[in-house]
Amino acid sequence: MAIVITYGTFDLFHVGHSRLLQRARSLGSHLVVGVSTDEFNLSKGKRAINSYEERREILLASRYVDDVFAEECWEQKRSDIMRFSAAIFTIGDDWVGKFDNLSDLCAVVYLSRTNGISTTYIRNNVVDIYNGKQRIRDVPTLI
Fold first, then answer.
1. Is residue 46 flagged as an active site residue?
2. d(CA 82, CA 15)
3. 94 to 67, 68, 109, 110: CA distances (angstroms)
């Protein structure tokens, strides 16, 4: 049983998140996800719309996710990999090279993101729609 571990904020859960989790899960038989806590996000200068508890619940509802735990700091990844006996660490390709130092513990795999979608993109579109700068029907759909 190959355990795969990944991390993220996973705010405003969208198709890009779902596709990333699906690809991560396909790398092994069990997927565990570290979700950034609200406090950790604040230390990174980020603020999620949904609380940690809500994001955790949403992820647990995904058929690709087997377990969710709190990510409270950058440094915990090594101990998490050992705690879960993860064979594969994976994360989005916007982090290429940043976690190569974990390759002494497990395989490190960078997955491509879904083009045209991100939490930032959704946030910006909601603000634009609210401010009358964009109509809902102008928002592109993903294929």
1. yes
2. 30
3. 24, 22, 12, 8
Place of tokens 């130092």: 101
Given the residues 44, 77, 98, 133, the one annotated as active site: 44
Report the candidate in 100, 13, 98 with the shortest Cα–Cα distance to residue 61.
Answer: 13
pLDDT in tens, the chain (143 residues): 799 999 999 998 888 899 999 999 999 999 999 999 999 999 999 888 899 999 999 999 999 999 999 999 999 999 999 999 999 999 999 999 999 999 999 999 999 887 766 666 666 665 566 676 765 555 555 54
For the chain, domains (ranges, CATH) are 3-114 (3.40.50.620)
Say if strands 3-8 and 30-36 run parallel, antiparallel, or are unpaired: parallel
| Residue 133: active-site member | no
| Rounded Cα–Cα distance for residues 139 and 118 (Å) | 13
